[in-house]
Amino acid sequence: MTAHKPGDPTTLNRLYGRAKGKPLRQGQQALVDKLLPQIAVPEDGPITAERLFGRDCPLHFEIGFGGGEHLAYRADLLPDHGFIGCEPFLNGVAQALTHLGGDDERHAPIRNIRIHHGDALEVLQRVPDGALSFLYLLHPDPWPKARHAKRRMMNDGPVDLFAAKLKPGGEFRFGTDHQVYLRHALMVMRRHTDSFEWLVEGPQSWQNRPGGWCETRYEAKARRLGHEVWYFRYRRR
Description:
By secondary structure, this protein is α/β, with parallel strands linked by helices.
């Protein structure tokens, strides 16, 4: 990975943002108390497919999964793959657990997901280099003020980490509806062309949601507000 000097504002040193919102409903709290411990990412040690799922399989990693719609959709679509989702917001974790079949007897539970309630970068650092097939960052907190730019997940330090953990040919997917964040992210990715190839064929590549990429609640909200949404796919060189 590219070295960065201590204090470099493009290196993310801590997690920012709220951790909890309104009180959980009784059913959500039950899922957090009972289901989450069963599928939680181990608190220490290496993070491998064999350790999490008992087998070697393609490994996916989602940073800040929000309500878990995309995470559950991809895991259901690819049952032979393993998925790791990280989210610091407890209410989002609780909502994601409802998508796993834990509160609905009509659906078979999704078993190929492991969840971390907390800092994604701490977990990502424990993934062996070259282990990931896909990495997702969808609608991250934009931190639009210039003085908060170092808090954005799309910065050189995290992107170096993404490159290290993705296998050659692995894919990084990024989506946003925020113009300031969009410009910042593209600027950052232009500094990493030695690690990533932008999979683009024209405006339709970033204006239309690619196949296998479902709409999240944040994307739906953005569209209701009249925002344009942009989609980006990068292949690890």
